[in-house]
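Q: Structure for this?
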Amino acid sequence: MSDKQGFMKALKCRECGREVPLTATHVCEFDFGPLEVAYDYELIKKSLTREVICSRPQTMWRYRELLPIAGEPTVGRQVGYTPLVKADRLAKALGIRELWVKNDAVNYPTLSFKDRVVSVALSRSVELGFKTVACASTGNLANSVAANAAAAGLDAYVFIPSDLELGKVVNSLVYGANVISIKGHYDEVNRLCAEIAGKYGWAFVNVNMRPYYAEGSKSMGFEIAEQSGWRVPEHTVVPMASGSLLTKIHKAYQEFTKLGLVPASKWKVHGAQATGCSPISVAQKAGLDFFKPVKPNTIAKSLAIGTPADGFYALKVMKETGGHSDDVSDDEIRDGIRLLAETEGIFAETAGGVTVGVAKKLIASGKIPAGSSAVLCITGNGLKTLEAMAGHVGSTREIRPSLREFEAVMAQDKPELVAR
Amino acid sequence: MISVTIPPTLRRFCGDQATVDVSPGTVATAVGELHDRFNGIRDRLLDTGGSIRGSVLIFVNQEDIRFLQGQETPLKEGDEVSIIPAFAGG
């Protein structure tokens, strides 16, 4: 392992294959194609075995050779290794033999999968000498950049659409980050950030640091494979905003297979979107290789990206693996959130409702066969999107501290108990 | 004139300028003018069939031209054009 680049070799264009040095840059100068980290897999193979992984602390950094930093992680060292929950009650409700929930709603420290990508992006930013970090976010990323930057002593600028849920706004402000709220939807925030990134010399985690940042998502796939008993699940259902997470979970399965950490097998990766912002699922269902951009209108604000950066590659992964895609309405999203909560005791944010709702459709249509086993990726916590559920989960029944008043309630619920 | 914001990736081809002024017309004529002044620009932005590359987004007054008239989107005095790499965000 070299001191300067660890197990990385270069940044490589996914389109033309040209290689450039491992700096803070995200697109190829030749064709604007996305740059991706290329690794020295021969070197990794000598270092990374199941035994080595198992000997390390239970965080995402136990797969450190496959994550793009040169030295040891300096930001977010405790992130990851979230529970993979066997979801028997949800499996029964959805009509499938076996179901697992990868629960990043309890990821550390900001309760979403974004802590994975941010710990990588900020550790790499520190290596490259940046003092200020930034992001364009639908909320969860802003929370994670704000928190992890605070813990690392970095200055943070986070840019969000102005219509975000209060929980996501407060969750960014509390860490002392500079929160800039943009009057527009996420795609407009993203465009502005590309312009700002071009002018200010900051580490924008999902602009100029994106090749490193995006690789952090692989850790969710590594953990799923390890926690499944060192094998790749037959079916994985992943929510899609930019589509990046879906492509990186597939890449994680490929890398584990290539390194011999899991046996070779066939897997399908399925993508979930909200009907109010479904450019990728609409294209997948129509059998297209490309998507048409849309203007988002959905309660699943964390997935509301009308021009998904990795839409093309997400479609490619679904095609290659034989995966499917679908989308669900706002009411179906709420139903999905409630079903996951009532069957498994897990309160997911709106993106989780999308994943559950789409899994239900894919199982009902046989695209995920009833006799198979599937993993659902839950990426964020319901406490951050309370607005989506308030008024849709019933209401409390308020009484005075009086046994008589409580028994009036019970007389409606369970009169046989009151009569005793 | 019309101001075109050039992304860092392309500035090397444009004399290291962050913005370049072009004449009114359409997005297509603006791309042509940039190419005439800064050799190589068109090949970065357009594929061999003359379509804007999937990896490139062009905005006129903050709106994606795919929601307007694509390369035929008119450009008038005072309009702002921004060229952005597609692979960002999320």
